[in-house]
Structures are given as C-alpha cells and as structure tokens.
C-alpha cells in the first residue's frame, strides 16, 4: 500500500464513497417513486466504483479498475431492466407508487 | 461303493418325459372348455406317453460307467456353480415310474370319477401340471431346481385341494396346506444358502463330494435339519402334518395321486437323494429316525379315531410315510424307498377303491353310514381288501416285505426303541385298517339309519366335523351324479394296481442278494459299521406278524364277529360318543398351532392396525405435513410484496456482514 500516491488523503475517498452509498440506501428505502429508487441504486453502484478505484490505486493493482468497469456494465444492464419495468408499470396503472404494487405478497 | 451322479450325455427322451405333462397342462388350460370330454383322454395320453418314454430310458438310468451312475443332461449355466440340468439315475427312475405309471392309471380313473363335473378340463390341467412339477422335483440335478419343483408341487396341491372352491372348507384346507408347505420351502432354501456358502455350488455332485471336507459335523447337522423341515412339511411329519387330513377335501383321485402316492413322499425322495449327507451325520439320522417313528405311531393312533373313510386313509398315509422317513432317516435308504414303492401301489389302490364307494354312494364318506357293501360292490371289496392286506403286512403281499425291511434295518442301524415303536405301529395299523374293512363292507347297510342313532349328531365328538355339512353342499358342487362314464374306466386302473400291490414286494425277497438290494447297491452309500442284529431277521418277521395278528384279532372281535355285525348301529353310536376327545381333536395340534402362531399373529396384526399404523406411520406422515405447513406459514409472512421491505432486508443482511467483518477485524 502506498498512501503517497494520493494528493488528497485516501480516507476522504472512502468516506465520500460511504456517504454516497448510504445516501443511495436511504433513497431506496425511503422513496416510493421507482425512478428515484433506480437513481438511488445508481448512486450505490457509483459509491462502490469509487471505493474500488480508490483501493486499486492504493494497492497499485488493476483488478479494482477492472471490477469498476464490470460494475458499470452491470449497472447499465440493471438500468435497462429497471427502466423497462417502470415503463410497463406506467402503462398498467396511472400512479407509480411501489407500495401499491404488492401483488406478489405471500 | 458310492457313485458320483450321472454320466454326461444327450438324452432327448428326458426332455420329453419332463415336458410332455407341461404341454398337456398348457393345452388343457388354454383350450379346456372347447375340448370338453376329450380333456381327460388327452391329459391321460400325455402321462402315458411319459411313462412309456421312462421305460425306454430304463437303460440310461441304470447305466454305470467308471464312478458315474445314471444319465445326466446339462441344460444351461447361470453363474459359476449354478448349472441346471436333468439327472436320471436309479432313484429318479423309481420315482418317475411311479409318478408317470401310477399317475397314468389315476388319470384314467379320473375320467370316470370326474365325469359330469363342471370343470373336467381344469381338473386335468391341474393334474398334468402336478405331474410336470413332480418330475421337475425328481429330475433336477441340483438343489435349486429341486426347490422349484418342490414349490410347484405345493402349488399344484393347493389348486387340487381347493378344486371345489365353492366349498369354504376346501378353500381353507388348500390354504392351510399351502402355508405349511411354504414353511418347509423356507427350510430348504436355508439349507441351500448354507450349501452354496460352503460348497460354492448348487449341484448334488459337488455337494456330496465335499460332505466330509467342506462341512463341520455341526454345519452338516444344520443343513440336514433345515432340509428335513422341508421334508416334514411336504411329507406330513409331526408337527407339520396337520394339513394332510384336511387335504382330503380334494377329489379322491387327487388324494390318491398327490396325497398318498407321490407328492407326500417327496420328503422320502429328498432324504434318499441326500443320502451322503445323512450317512455323514449321525445326529441327523437320530433326529429324522425319531421323528419318523413318532409320526408313524401318532398317525396310526389317530387313524383309529376317524370315521371319514378318506381321513382314515389320510392318517394311515401319514403313518406309512413315518415308516419311510424312519427308514431313510436311520440310513436304510433302499428299505425306505421300497416302502415308498409298495405304498404308492397299495395306497393308491385303497384310495381309488374308496373313491369307487364314495362315487357309488353319492359322496357319502362316513363309514358309519356304509356297511354291508361287500355284496353290493364286490369289486371294491376285493380291491380294498387286498390293499388292506398289503398295508397290514400279511406275508406274500407287498407291504410285508417293505415294512419288514424298514423295521429290521432300523434295528440293524442300532435303534431298538424306534424298532419297537414301528412294530407297535404295525399292530395298530392292522387294527384300524381291518376296522375300516369290517365297518364298511360287513354288517347291515346303515345308509338309511338316522345319523343320530350312529352318533353323528355330535360331529365335534365324532371327529368328522366337516362331514356333517359336507353332504348337503355336495349336491351344489356341480358334480352331477346322473352322468356316469363307462364303469371300466374306474375299475380297470384299480385292477391293474392290484397286481403290483401283491407282487412288487417280492423284489426284496432274498436278503442281501435280492434284486432290490442289488439295484440300489451302486447308488446308496452304506452306513458305516457292520451292525450285528440282536435278533435274526426271521424272528423279527415273526414278532411283527404276531403283533399284526393281535391287531387284526382285536378288530375282528370288535367289529367282525356275527354279534358285533348284528349290533353294529348301537356299537358305532357308543364308540362315536365315547371316543376320547384327545383323539377326535388330533392331539389338539390345530389348537396348539392356533394358540402359538395364529393368535399371536392376529394380536400383532391388531397392534399394527390400531397403534403402529395410525399413530406411528400415519402420525409420522401427518407430523411432516404439519411442520411443513407451519414453516410455510412462517416464511410467507416475510413475503410482503413491498419492494422497499425487501430492500430493507438486503440492507439488514449487508449490515450483518459488515458487523461480522468489523468484529473479526477488531479481534485481530
């Protein structure tokens, strides 16, 4: 590990990543609009990406970069599917409150 | 000198002898209803053909080459040590001649006896099937083939005892015979398992060659005892004899062929076949000899107490097989087989004679309701009279030679007690057989006497429990007595049987040089140790004769004198009423079996039915479904359908992971 590679202290990156991640979590749990929830999920992905890139730089190891790209890909796929679901929901009903969509209740 | 079994070769006639009855059975089964009156002749002809083929194969059976005796035809091999084939040696020859020869005569007789029955074709199909099964038993060259035949004759016996299946008593008798016989099959199966584990082969030859090297005396005794369980069940030895008297529910020709001449002597065959085992095991000889003697006297004493003509003969069969088993059991194999041979003729003749009477009297079987039949049915009287003289061992008749041979060789083998029991049994036999003769053929005809005057009102006291309900049902069993086949069909076979009944015993005339002894000298091992007889054979014969004469005299005094004949109705009534209950109940064997086995089985069934099954089995299944349902209910409550709820679970899970790794990290 080589902290001297960082101009800004590494802890700041990690702290930013944690803050963004918890913003995302809170957004998913608190908001009922599916679009906002998808955006929050996107926040969590990017928080994870930030952490991966930070650690990759810290350890001088490209695995973290590679995984960051992988996460971006997954995020794109997730966004495609999620938006498709949202579009279908819009067509089916007028309001899009996720709490109203509980048909799969056990 | 003992010979290894069988000269290998190709013997197509053996296949013919073996399979001709099977062809008959299949044809009669398949086309029976269309053949109608042809069924009997077809079935008889095939058995007759098998008999002729047996005669043509005589030289194959008696051939001796080097250390081999008889003919051996290999069929196929399944696994190493499990080869199947046909063995036709002198012992098998004797049995095959009786099975096909006497079997043929009884088939011809049956054409007459069964004429008018609804299911003649079915009867002959069963009879042919029986002959095939019995031939499988005696022709097999290995223990497994023998067991197959052993099981098939039990099946054929079951079919034929229950032939008149409209009768509940016949069905019960058939079931009883089958169950007890299966018990014996299990004994033989156990013996086979031991033999295979010790010898690695099921063949007779390999087993007998290794008797002294591969078995310890204890193991040998176990094998013999297990085999004997099978023999005891099949040959009605105490305590597995109780099915035989009940088996008389079958048609009389069946009783003559299966339950007198052939099947019930399968135990004698098996012990004679396994002679090397018995020769090597003194314990087995002692056990089997003792059981044979016990059966001989137990059967004879019960014969005294019977009123049903077929049951008298059934108990006498049991007693005579006791003699045979005693003979082969103590190591006098040729004597035991000789008694089988003579018994097959005279007992078949007695049964067929009884069949003529029963047929004539419209299914009456109770001797108290007969009497005076000598003038009405002179032929039956002569036939049964000669049979009685033969079974009693009157000199000159066949039974005399064979019974004396068995008794004297038992004495020679060093069993004076068994000898004494055998001699006593001979006296009792003479008594009850002459009783049968006097009551049936002498005195006034009692068929029109009120049954209660003969003591028949109390069947449970008179020992003919079944016979009371019998006759009423007899009319319904489809046996139309209006239809009668030509009389010669029933008389000629009996007349032919009379000849060997008288003469066949002379084969054993001449002591050690008799044709019989010389015939079997190459195949039976001789029990070691030249025994010195306590008394010469002549004296033994005289002792037996004196005892037999006493038996006949008592029977004459009780039933034969002029006054006894005149007052026979009152006499029989008193005897029926006073008959000891232990005899009329056959020593309570059935009751004991009921208490020891049937009731515990029922209790076990009830326990399983009321406790184990509903509570443990059903309860277990119910508990599993309950638990699954409860778990499902629990997990279903988590599935709220709210996406944000699921997200919360995820967060909670992630929090757990984070907490865990934080804790691990802290501990480092």
- H/E order of the elements of chain A? HHH
Approximately how much helix is present in the residues of chain B? Answer: over 70%
Which stretches of chain B are poorly predicted, pLDDT < 50 over at least 5 residues? Answer: 458-482
Termini of chain A, distance in Å? 49 Å
Number of domains of chain A: 1
User: Which value, in Å, is the CA radius of gyration of chain B?
Assistant: 31 Å
Distance between the termini of chain B: 92 Å
Count of runs of 4 or more consecutive helical residues of chain B: 31
Instruction: Tell me the major beta sheet of chain A.
Output: none
Task: Describe, in plain words, how this protein is organized in 3D.
The complex is a heterodimer of chains A (106) and B (668). Chain A has 106 residues and is mainly alpha-helical. Helix content of chain A is 73%, strand content 0%. In chain A, helix 1 (10-30) packs antiparallel against helix 2 (34-59) and helix 2 runs antiparallel to helix 3 (63-92). The longest helix of chain A has 30 residues, at 63-92. Chain A is elongated. In chain B, a hairpin with a 2-residue loop joins strand 3 (68-79) and strand 4. Chain B is mostly helical and 668 residues long. The radius of gyration of chain B is 31 Å and the shape is globular. Chain B has three domains: 4-584, no CATH class; 585-637; 639-668. The longest helix of chain B is centred in the last third of the chain and has 48 residues, at 589-636. The relative contact order of chain B is 0.08. The A-B interface holds A 25, 28-30, 32, 37, 98-99, 101-106 and B 635-644, 647-648, 651.
Quick overview of this protein structure:
Chain A is mainly alpha-helical and 106 residues long. Helix content of chain A is 73%, strand content 0%.
List the main descriptive attributes of the protein structure presented here:
heterodimer; A: 106 residues; mainly alpha; Helix Hairpins; 73% helix; B: 668 residues; 3 domains; 4-stranded mixed β-sheet; 31 helices; 4 strands
